[in-house]
Hints:
The chain is of the alpha+beta class. Helices cover 48% and strands 11% of the residues.
Amino acid sequence: MVDAQTQIESIRSAGERIARVAPTDLDATVPTCPDMTVRDLVGHTATFCNWMGKIVTTGQAQAPAFTAGDDPVTSHTQELEGLIAALTSGDPDADGWAWGSDQHRRFWYRRAAQELVIHSWDIENTVGDPLPIDPQIAADGIDEYVQEFGPSNWFMKGAAELYDRPGTRITFDASDVGTSWTLVMGEKDVELADGDGSDVTASGTASDLLLFIWGRITPDALDADGDRSLLDRWRDRVKI
């Protein structure tokens, strides 16, 4: 996991990019979030920032009760600053509620960074050319996905259950950071293993791997060694 300050800097950068790019076409449909326009997605990020700020401040579970106003970009900017203030003044190592495996407030530092970098990419991809995600943040996002979204939990099906092919071994190899993750898919859990004997190895930058894992780009953007149809299965079935 990257340090809290790096995550805060990523949150600010991604959040400011959303505010800068979104007004280009607020009514455009977001291809990677097909039920949302840019306006809807910016409203979502405003609500998300408000929600995360409350959880980090209190350390308690909070319902997302905030709704962005008629000017979602202004709401997003205001709530982004509130979230950054909460994160900057908070203690990431303090105990606190989280739905994932790490019951410390740092869980939300990473979750906020990942939510905003993905949605800034969504919006940039809608209205122009998206920037790649920083390699360090992208690698941390892959770690988060494996740890927190791989297994099923009390409120959602994880990647393993959605993939529905126990025993499959998939390796994601990030060429720019020298890190790889080999996932052994179970019925409801994902086990990390060494890369020997993988059914398919998908290679690319950490940014491209994270974007593929989250369904933003197709397997064609990656180099594949082994059974490429296993990546197609991920694209078709693993939608969280």
